[in-house]
Structure formats: C-alpha cells, structure tokens
Structures
1.
Amino acid sequence: MVNREAKKTSFIPGIEGLRTLSVLGVILFHLWPKIFSGGFSGVTVFFVVSGFLMTSIVLRDLATFGHLRLKRFYLRRFWRLYPAFVVMILLTTALLFFFFPAGLFGIRGTLISNLFYVNNWYQILHQVSYFAAGAHWSVFTHLWSLSVEAQFYLIWPLMITAILYLADKKWQFSLLIPAFLALISSFLLAVFYSPASTNRAYYGTDSRVFSFIIGGMAAILITLLRSQACPEILRRFQKLLTKYSVWIISVSFSGTLILFVIANGVQAWVYDFGMLLLSIFTALLIYYFVMLPKNHFNLIMGNRFFRYIGSRSYSIYLYQLPVFVILEEIFRNFSPLVHFWVALFSILLIMLFADLSYRWIEMPFRHGMIHMTRQSLMSLKNVLTALLIALALTGTFLGFISNDATHSKSADQLRRHLKSESKKISRQNSQAVSARQSAVSSQSAKSSQSSAAQGQDQQLAGIFQTSSENIAKVRQLSVTAIGDSVLLDVGPDLQMAMPKAIVNARIGRHTQEAIDSLQTLKDEKKLDPIILMVIGTNGEISADNIQQVRHIAGNRQVFWVNSFSGGKPWEGPNNSLLSNFDKQDSNLHVIDWYSGAHAHPEWFAPDGVHPQRAGNRAMTTMIINSIADSVK
C-alpha cells in the first residue's frame, strides 16, 4: 500500500509552485536586494522541499524492497544534479575569461570546493559573507546551498534508515528523533549568529539542516497517516488539520510571502526563529499538497506556468547569479534606466540557459545517456551542446593558466593593496604619536615655522580641493578614526591632511567590533576629543550601536561617515538611522558620503565599494570640510 501511494504522489503540482516562488524570490533578491531583502528565504523553502522528496524516496525503497538501495540512491542523485552543475561551472568560467577576467582571480579554491560539494565550509573559512560581499556577489557565491544539500543527501538516507529501525516498535521515535535533531540544528543557527558575521550560522550544514529534517518529518507523517496501522492519535491530528485546512493554508502561505518580503539576512530574529518558522510553513503547505490534492490552492500552485518554471528551477538557480554578475560588470557604468532593462534582459537570458540545460543536460542524464542512439548524438542539439562544452573547457583552461595581470580589478590585488595601506597607516600612526609628544611649546618656534606651514596648507588645499583655512584648522587636531576596510583605503590620505590622526581600521569589521575598540581606547585613556567613524559597509547599524557610541564619546565630537555598500539591504536603513540621530545630537555629525559616492561610480574599484585614489581624496575632503566647519 505504501508503494502504491508513493507512486500516486511522485508528482505533486503544488511543489512546483513552491519551487517557482522560491527561485523567483532568490532572483529578485540578487537583482534588487534593497527592495526584496527577504528573497534569500527561497533557499530555505528549497531545503524543506528537498528534505521531503528525499525522505519520500527512502521510505518508498524501504517499503518496497525492505532495504534502502543506497548505491542506486546516490547514483540517481549524482546524475540528477552533477552534470548540469559542472557544465554551468565550466561555461561560466569560460564567460568570465572573455567578459570579466577579473572574476577569475582566486577562483581555484572556489572551483575545487564546489566540485567536491564543500563550498559552504570554504566560504566560512575564507569569511566570504553572503550579505556583506560589497556591490557584487561572486558568480559562484550562491552555490554554497548545493554543497549543504549534497551533504544532506550523503548523510540523511543512513540516518533516516537508522531512525526507522529504532522506531520499529515505537512509532513515536520516527517523529520525535527528527524533531529533536531539528531543534538542535535551529538552536545552533541562533547560537552561531553574530551581528559581526552571519557566515557560520548562514552557511553551516549543522545550522541549516533543520529545514531538510522538517521536510523529512512531513514525509514520515504522511506515510504514517496513509498506513493501515496508523495510530489513533495521528488520525485525530489529521482530522484537525483537515478541519482547519483553509486557515492553516492561508496563514502558512501568507506567512511565507511576508517573510519573503520583510526578512533581512543580517537581522537576529531571522536566525532566532524566522527560518524555523518558514520551514514549518513550507512543510505544512507540502502536507496539504499531498493529502488534499484536489484542494483549489494546490491546483492554483500547480498551474502551467509554475510547473514550467518549477521543473527548471534547478537550472534557473544555477545560472541566475553568473548571468547577473557578468552583465552587471559589462554595463556597470551605464545609467539606472539601462540597468533596469539589463535586469529584464538578464531574466530572459537566464530562462534561455535554464531551458537549454534542462532539455540537453538534466533530462538526458536523468534518463540515462548510455541509451542515446547514434543518430541523436549527431543531432543539431548535441552538436551545439558539444560546442558550448568546448567553449567552456577552453575558457576554464585559459582561466587556470592566466596570470594576475589585471590591475585593480583583482580581488587578490585589492587585498594586497589594503595590506599595503595598513602598513602605511601603522607607520603614520607612530609618527602621529611622536608629533603629539614633541609639540612645540615656544611661541617663537611656532612663528619661525608659520611660513612653511602656510605653504604646506596651500599645497594640501590644492590636493584635496578645499581651502587652506580648513586645512590649517584640521592639521593640528588629534583625531581617533575607527573603521573597516574603506577606512584602510582612505587612511593614508586622511593622515596626509591630518598628521595627528590615529587610524584604527580592519578588513571586514562590523559596527559592534568598532564600538568595542572605541571602548578599549577610552579605558586606556587614548580616545581623542574628535572621533571619526567610518563603519557600516559590512552590516547593520542599530540604534543601540549609535547610543553606545554617544555614551562612550561623552562630550567629544563624533563624525560618522554614512554607508555606501553598493545597494546592500542595510545601506538605506543605516543612513536613515544616522540622519535621524544627527538631528537630535549636536555632538554627532553625519558626513554624507553616500550621495557623492552614488553619483560617481568612477571613484571605485570593481567591487563598487572600496574607493580608488579619486574616491579616497573625495571622502577625505568631505571629512576635512565637516570637521573644519564644526570645530571652533
């Protein structure tokens, strides 16, 4: 009976609808992260659906054959997923070589970790943030989720077989053990979350596996309800679910859509309960798709359009970010209107790649390419496929042998540049300390140096396009500057104009880390009368963060450079919050870097976040003018 029922539910139209909404959510998030900040939640829905389908396959095997055909299970998953995955990687690498060679630098580790399905751990180890990656994601950033999924496929069949063995006499174990494991995993998600970095929580297999398990629990529950020996307590539970189906479906679906809109990948509540809640909503919807197949909602979610998109959702997911990143790079200096049309065109291009991948790669490998006839191998489709693969292999080969000759576009070169700037800042910090200690005390000494100082002021005024009076005002000021890698870039120019400034900057720093450093300096009595904050690029600034800075600063003047993070979800909220506090506190001065940066894309390195020379000097000028205007 279990086998017969399994065949009946081998295709569930409503699930294609869930896949469609999920992949559309991810696409919209990658296109317009400020507007569709919760679109990344589509990955959680994918995880639940995968958990349900994989558990259903395992249960079907156990019911039909009395054991799990493990080799067959792994081979089917391999041929279902790996060929299209590898072709996408090869083709994308080739396209990078021809259209965006800077994207090839540092790609070896990414390629290897993806091919072995451990990319999520690679991104954790290399601190590759999904939500603080600057203006552009990498073409392969999204593949972390496929690594998590592959690891689940490897472990879960063995685990579920063991769980069902333990539950042979006590059916409750078949639900209680997975529920316990899911709770542990969701607890780890909340524990691993940190405002400073979401990487460990977001990418970790252990902290994300609960979504798969909850999907698996839906499959186990449905199997129990359909068995002739179904316990009475589950029968009563089923009646309740049926009685209130309209309400539960409405709440689950609307809750899913709301989370797709309001969730933000850097906010604590998403990790505390948001993803868990979304997983439960998805599992409930799947339950109704299976148990009430003629429900109107199931029929709506299984419409032709959703079935078409859903069937190709895997290939759509594979190609969406490579297409976005490469086209964005090609058209990066065009107007917003052009970017809008490029976004629409990119969606069409993704659909084209996905359809070709589905027809020529997914389906043939899924049904066994070994049985293809000689005639089909010589068809036009396969000739074109061969050409695409040849192009991909050529590009991959060229990508591997290419050297690091592409100037500042290289991510490796950016890291080297920031390291070099850090050394400059360290040397200048030492000089600033010496300058403070050896300040001239006699008025005559000051007079003898005034002529030289005026000449230097005029020279610096020319460099920074400001007045010599402003330079003279800020040159002797003691300033504590705290920030992230953007301050590392700006630091040398800042210390050229303000030689007594002490710069404390670090790559990847988040707001709370900067505040902790600020508190340490205050405790050590090293905090200057003027504080400069260049922080907010890598994540959210909260009202509590600003209050902490105000408390630490006391009567000191705080100058805070607002955020320009290439359209990341926290950019707008950060700047609005700073603007509101600026109006309330006379000691807080917000420097509007965002407006100038937004109007001058030529100021930036290819990541769209770190300023180059013109951008460094523009920010330094804004800082000089703001401090000079505010300090008497």
2.
Amino acid sequence: MSMVYAWNLVNPTLCYGRDGLLQELLRELPGHPGFSFGIAGGRRMGKTTLLRRVEMEIQAHAETWRSGGLRIIPLYLDGLALPRPLTAADVWGYLLRILQDALPEYQQPAPLSLDFDRFKDVLRDVLRSVLTSTAEQPRLIVLFDEIEPVLVCEDWAGGLLANWRALLSNTPGLSEYLTTVFAGAREMALLQRDITSPLADILKWRNLRVLEFEDACRLMQEPLGQEWSDAFLETVYRETGGHPMLLQYIMQYVCSRAPGAVEPLAEEAIATFAREQRRQFSQWWSRYCSPDARLVYARLPDDGSLIPRRNLTREFGSTSADNALEILQHVGLVTAAEDGFAFRYSGEMFRRWYREYGKDDLNDVPRHDPDIYTRLCNIQPHLGDRYLTAWKIYQNPEFANYSGAAAEMRDIITGLLDVIAPKDAVEKEAGFKREKGRKEPSRIQQVAYAVRHIYGPGTKETTEVPSDYSLLEAEWEKLEHLEECLPQW
C-alpha cells in the first residue's frame, strides 16, 4: 500500500475539513478590496497545511489571475525560521528578502534588518518596479505562519502589530497592494480575544477545530483511493476525536503494515502512540490548558455524553467557563453540539491519558469539591450556588477571616434541613414537643428528625445527635446519602 501519510510532516495535499475556509481565503485575499485574516488553531491542527495549500493553489492558478489583470505574489513566512534573538527589524528584513526571492525583476540588495519606515520605502520601490515591468496589478499576500516567536517579544511585539495595522489599512500606495494571513496557536488565540490588540478589528478571525466525521473519513480514504469498513472508520474517529495529527499517525501506522486486518493495526497504533508519544498529550495539558480549562475538562461526563453549557457557566462563571471551553476546543479536546450550548470531550486516546496522568495535576489546582456541588444542585440548584459563593469567599485573599464563607455554609445546612426535615413534618411526628419559648421546631430537632429517617429509630446515630454548632463538621457524612432519601419526603 502506497504511503501518503506522515504525521510529523506538512503535506498541503492532505488539507481536509477546511474546504470552506480555503475557498474564503482564495476569494478574499486577492479580492477588491482585499481582506486579511487571523487564524488560530492548536498544535498540529493543520494551520501550516492550510497556509501551504493556499500558497500551492495561488501558484497553480497564477495564470488565471493574470488573465484577469492581477498578479498574485504569495510570500510564506515561517516564524520558526526567524533569527534568535529576534527584533522587529529582523522581521521586516526577513520579509523583504522573501519578497526579493519572489520577484526576479527586483534585484536590489536586501538588508538583513531595517526599521518600519525604511521597509515601507523599499516596498514602494519594489511595487514601482513591478508596476512598470508588467501590466497586471500586483497583490502581495503574506502568509505569516507560527507568529508566536513575535508575539512573545513583549518589548516590541505591540509596536510591530501596530505597524502591520498601518500597513494593511492606512498606508496609501501600499495598503491596496497587500493582504496578510497571521496564523498561530496559543498566543494567537489570546490575541484574538484581546480587544486592545491593533489587529483585533481589521482581521477576519477564524478558528481551526477537529475534523467532522465525514471530513475525517475523506482524509482516511481519498488519498489512498481506498474504502474502509464503517467499523474501522468509526473506531479511528472515536479514538482520535477527529484531530488531524492523530488521524495521520494511525493511518501512517496502518498503511505501513498493510495488507492485513486493519482494525487490529489501528489498536496497535493507538497503543504505540500511548507508549511512545504521550508527551504530546502532556504538553497539550500542561502548556496549553489553563487551570480553569483543566477543571472544566474534568467536569465533562466520563461516558462521553453532553453537558449543557449552562451547567458549566453556573459552576465556573460565564467568563471562566467560556474561556476554558474556547481553549479546550482550540487544543482539540472538546467539541461543541447543539449550536454551542452543549459540549463533550473529544477523543478516547486523550481521555485515557487524562484518566491515568492528567487527573493528578488537578490536585495542585485550587478548586471547589465538584461532588459536593453536584449533589447540592441535585437537591436544590440554589444550594449549589451558595456553595460556590462560599468557596469564592474562602479563596479571596482580601478577606481577613472566613466568616462570610461560614455563614454561607450554615445557610446551606439550613436549606438541606428544610428539604429533608421540613418543619411542618417535624411538628407532625409522634411525640414532638416544642422547646421552651419556641414557636417552631429548632434546628437540633430538625437534625434529629433527619437522622432518624435516614438511619432508622433506635440506631446508634439517632442517640448521638450533635449540637447545632457541630452540625457542619459532624453531620455532613451522616447526611451524605440524603439524595437517596429525598423521595420519601
């Protein structure tokens, strides 16, 4: 079987699941007016494959554009190839050298580095030479891949982005000839959400996600001209979650060992990745997932079912939950359903890694107890809300004491008692007598009622009813089965 897959190499012919975005880029980048883009996607999600495919398509159809009076000049810039240490002048110089390589009619020496003003002057000279040598209108399309090495240079990155904004939108004589695609992973995703970024409102922002099932099936079959069984396709998709890199890893493994039964080979590939490449998952988890993202991932149902977005925003807050879900989709660990109102984890390969290795990391992340929260919400949702309020007070370093948290927890206990030991039911119990000076059952009488109905009369627990003050510490364990008892009331 011919080998077309290489999980650790870029192959623009294997650009699947991006058809709509690819066509949009090929339409808008050379359009009149032209539009520029920002593309964010997790590691190995296919950003470079997409940009190289854009470059390939432009080169393949160059004559078609030229016949329409437009000369398209694609300039692929790999941020990982920039020099270290890096300066803004290095970026402009590197771009100019790429441009010179693409234009044989312009043979002036290109400096290794130059400032923005000098870059604009040289770019004008370049465009002038193109305009005088050809009848077509030039369009420079910069494909800036792996932009992270620039964005992490805090001393000058903001200035460089501001210069790009001016170059793309407000430099007569240059802006009309230039469009750009910026692509990156984590830092690009952060830039997308940063409303103060100079590029925020001049780019069309797009996100790369894991592949849909049908697109993944095309990736597994079309390059080979091979049809696989539904069982094989479904197994590989379920295991990978549609992540392009994982799909190619399994397909490369299978194709290198076929002919033979492919289902066992897929299982071998999955086990081999878990043994030899699990550091990839560790990097996704520790480097790209924020603490909130890890906590939200941990709350996704382990059976792969959906959890409503509302449940997550209620537990973690709208901003924290939405940011976490965005990160998890960016990395490729979560997929959305029901128009973004429900989510599930994506990929059994990563989920198994998480169960074995990732859960331990959660011990270092301050968090409320999700089991307590869930059980309280099952009883009455507002009790879960009060528990989260108590936790936030407890976590706030500005508070000198935790009296507010203690008050919330006491109110939770009161709410629990009102559910499992309603005062009217306590009063109706045989032998009930009000305590002196009280018009309704006391808390201690409610506790006694609850314990009797949970453990039964005459048991050890019913004879050791704690005081009101020790209720929070002593009674939580005794009341832990209250969900099972609720149908009685």
3.
Amino acid sequence: DYLYFIHPLTDGVPYITPSILESVTEAFAQLLPQGTERIVTVEAMGIPLATALSLKTGIPFTIIRKRSYGLEGEKEVVQVTGYSRSKLYINGLERGMRVVIVDDVLSTGGTLRAVLKTLKGMGVEVLRVLMVFNKMEGLDGFQRELGAEIVPLLDVFVEGDKLVY
C-alpha cells in the first residue's frame, strides 16, 4: 500500500502560509550550488517552491509539465510512481545547462528517476536535488543509483495515521 500524508506544502490544503513558504525558500537558497543557471520543478506542488526560490535568487525556473505543448525540442518523460504511470514534458532546457531540481516530496522516487534520466540524456547537468520532505527509506543507495545528490529538509514516515519526523 502507498501511504499518503497531507501537508500544505505537498497538497496545498488547507493553504500554504507565507511564513512556511519563506522558511523553505530560505533553506533552499542556502543549499543552491554556485553556478546554478536554472531551477527546475515538476508540476504541480513544486511550482510554489520554485517560484519563491526564483524570486529570492533571481534564477529563472522551468516547470516540467503534465501536458505537451508540442514545441521544438520538447522532451517526453515517462514516469512510474507508487500510485500511477503518466507522461511529463520538458521544454526550455539546453545541453550544458547547470540546474537544480526542487520539489515537495520524495516518496517512491519514480518521478525523480525518470526526470534525471531524461535530463542526463539531454546533456543537462543536475547539480543537486532539493526536497522539502523525504519519505524514502534507503536514500543513500538511491542517490548512488541515480548519481545525484538529493538534499531533503526533513525525513518523514507515516506510522499508522501519524506523520513522524
């Protein structure tokens, strides 16, 4: 069974307060490597994080979308997560770009695995992956498998009906 938890930063409910968004943005800004040219996020809950981080740092951001726009150079990503299989679409990134991925939660790793594989195939250098929450057990092995540094702000797990951190 896939265990969900509901939090404003992962679901937008009941709402995201400016103070929590500011706290996460400040933490992410401290973790951005020098030379980051683009912030990259996956639709949907990474968007407020990437927006706030872009405003704070002046670094533009790219949204990996759930819908194709059919633009020249668009790359398709097939993602398989703990609860679905779907396609994502990357636009606006070029070979040699140095990017940081930001997102809300790392659960099964299916989305991140597919995105990293596609970005590497495009010749995009992923400097670091920043997550608010890490639900995955075995993060060290997952990082080695992907060849990517993943930095969560908080490790969490679901125990019964409670979120433990």
